[in-house]
Amino acid sequence: AGCAVLIVAAGVREFSASISKNGQTHEHALLAYTLRVQQLIVGVNQMDCSEPLYCQKIYKEFIKEVGSYVKKIGYNRHTVVFVPVSGWN
């Protein structure tokens, strides 16, 4: 596959669980890289759950955290695209 979309919840508890060593974000990102997916798009879901709503500071922290992990896996951090998403509003 040429591209994969990885959706990660931006809620504090959900994000902490998904980015932990045995979390699904770790597993799915590693699996995508192992399957030679060249382009990774990360959807930052539930931005409407942050305090304050749609907080850019939280979004940037999220990018930093997930970006450093995908870099460790082997992706070029500058080619990974991050997209804020909210399905509620």
UniProtKB/TrEMBL annotation:
Sequence ranges assigned to domain Tr-type G in this UniProt record: 3-88
GO MF term set: GTP binding; GTPase activity; translation elongation factor activity
A Pfam family that the UniProt record links to this protein: GTP_EFTU
Taxonomic placement: Eukaryota, Metazoa, Chordata, Craniata, Vertebrata
Keywords attached to this entry: Elongation factor, GTP-binding, Nucleotide-binding, Protein biosynthesis
Organism: Lynx pardinus (Iberian lynx)
Protein's UniProt keywords contain Oxidoreductase: no
SUPFAM superfamilies, alphabetized: P-loop containing nucleoside triphosphate hydrolases (SSF52540)
InterPro entries: P-loop_NTPase, T_Tr_GTP-bd_dom, TRAFAC_GTPase_members
Protein name: Eukaryotic translation elongation factor 1 alpha 1
Keyword GTP-binding recorded: yes
